[in-house]
Amino acid sequence: MIPRYITNFSTTNLPVLNTDVLVIGGGIAGLFTAIKISEHSKVLLITKKTIMDSNTQYAQGGIAAVFSDDDSPSLHRQDTLIAGAGLCENEAVTILTNEGPDAVKELIALGTEFDVEDGAFALTKEGAHSKRRILHANGDATGSEIVRALYKQAKNNENITIYDEHFVIDLLTENGICAGALIENHEGKREAVRSKAVVLCAGGAGQLYRYTTNPEIATGDGIAMAYRAGTNIQDIEFIQFHPTALCYPGAPRFLITEAVRGEGAVLRNNKGERFMSTYHPQMELAPRDVVARAIIDEMTSNKSTYVYLDITHESESFIKKRFPTIYRYCLQFGLDITTDWIPVAPAAHYMMGGVKTDLHGESSIKNLFACGEVSSTGVHGANRLASNSLSEAIVFGSRIADKISEIKQRESSDIAHEEQWTEHIHYPIIEKRLKLQKLMLRYVGLKRSRKGLEKGLAELKKQLPMFQINLQKREEYEFANLLTCALLVGQAAIKREESRGGHYREDFPETDDLLWKQHIILQREQGKQQTENGGDVFV
Length: 539
Description:
With 539 residues, the chain is an alpha+beta fold. The protein has a domain at 239-348: Alpha-Beta Complex (Flavocytochrome C3, Chain A, domain 1). Helix content is 31%, strand content 18%. It is built from 14 helices and 26 strands. It has a 6-stranded mixed beta sheet, with helices on one face. The chain has a 5-stranded parallel beta sheet with strand order 10-4-3-14-21, with helices on one face. The protein has a 4-stranded mixed beta sheet with strand order 2-13-12-11, with helices on one face. Helix 1 runs parallel beside helix 4, helix 3 (90-109) crosses helix 10 and helix 11 packs antiparallel against helix 12 (450-461). The longest helix is centred in the last third of the chain and has 22 residues, at 474-495.
C-alpha cells in the first residue's frame, strides 16, 4: 500500500515558514498564477531546481488563442473537443477558448513579446487545428520567452518570494483541508510551510518513460503527493507521446515542434516514402496520437528505429528564421535541417490526466488547487490539442487567483506522522528508475494490452516494499513518486477496455462510447477506485 506520508516528521520540531499562499512549481502555471495571486496575497513560490528547468522553458510551438478575423472561439472549441475524443468537459473548453485571448493579452502586458509580421501576430497552424491560431515567440522559443517575461515580473514583485532548489516532500492536511507542505530546503534540511492555500503547478511525469521530451525534474511529484493526500486523480491513463522527437546517435531526445509540420514538413519512412496519407486524411497534421502510432507502425514494418521529418523544400532563410532553436540544436550533431531530413521517433511528452479540479482549479481537497500539466481541468480530454496547454495554464491560473482571494486565513495546529518503518537500507535508485522507465515504455506505452499491462504491473508492484522505508533522500522521494504514478497509469489503463485518444489497447482497438465515455477517477483514501458511473477499480 502507498502510505499517507513517505517519511516521519513533526511540525513541532521543524522550522515553520508562514505565507498566505504556497505555489509549487515555476513554469508558466506557477509564475502566472503567483503573479495574479500577488495582487491580494503574499506568495511563496518553490521550485525543485530553478525557474529555467520547467517544461515551459522547453515549449517551442506556441500558445493557442483566437486572434484572427477568420477564426472564432467556437471554432477553437470545436477543434479542442474533436481532439479530446469525447472526454473533454464542455464548460471547461468553453472557458478556455473564450477567456484565452484576454489571458494572452495579460501575458503581453507582463512583457511577453510574440512574433509579429506586417503589424499583426504571426500565427501558425498545428495538428488538428482548423485555423492558424498559434502565437509564437523568437520563432520556436515561445516557452523560453514567456518564462523570461514572467520571471522578470515575479522576481521584482514584493509580494512574491522565490525559493529555488527546494523539494516538496508531501502536502500537509488537517481535517480534509490543505494546510501547507513538508519541504526539504537547498541545504537538505526539512521545513514546514503553513499557508491558507496551496497551488500545485509541479508539471507532469515524462520521466516515467525512457524516452521523453521532458526535463529530468518531471517525476510526477505533484500527482503523487496529491494522491497520497487523498485527492482525486483523473484520466491518468491518457499519456501523449509527441510524434517527432529527435532520434540521433549521441543526441538527447529533443522536441521537434509540431509547428514544423504546420509549416509544411512531411514525414518519410526509411525508404524515403511519405506514409501519413495511409493513416489519416489530415496526414501530417492529424491528431498527435494518430501520428505517433503511425510512426511506430512504419518503424516496425521497416525494421527501423526512426522515420524522417523533411522540411528541406523550404528556403534556408525561412527555416533559420522560423526555427532557429531547432536549427542550431541539430547543427551541433552534424544535422543541417535546411538540407538534411531529421530522424525522429515518438517520445513521452504530456499527461492529459492529473489532479481533478473544478472550474476554478480547486481539487477535491479544500484549499488545494492545481494548475498546468499536473491538473485535470477537463480541457484536454483523452488527447490534448496542440498548444492548448500554455493557454490552459494562464486561463485557469487566473481563475485560481480569483478563488483564493475569497479564502480566509485560518489557525493551524501541529501535524505529525510517526510510523514504524523497515530499517533504512541502500536503494540502488538509478537502476530501479531505469528499469521502471523500460517497463513503462514496453508495457504501458503507445500500444497496450491486458497481457502486457498485467505483466508490467506485476513487475512494478515488486517495488512496493520501498514504501515500508522511512525515505530520507531526494532521489528516493522522486522514485517513490514515479512508482506511484506508474502504478496509477497502469491501473487506469488496464481498466479502460477501449482505445481512445492517448490510450490505445491492441486487444480493444475500437472506441466504446457506450461503456467508456466516462472518466476513471483514482483516490487513495478509499482503498479502491471508481469510474465516473460508480464502477469499482481495485488497487
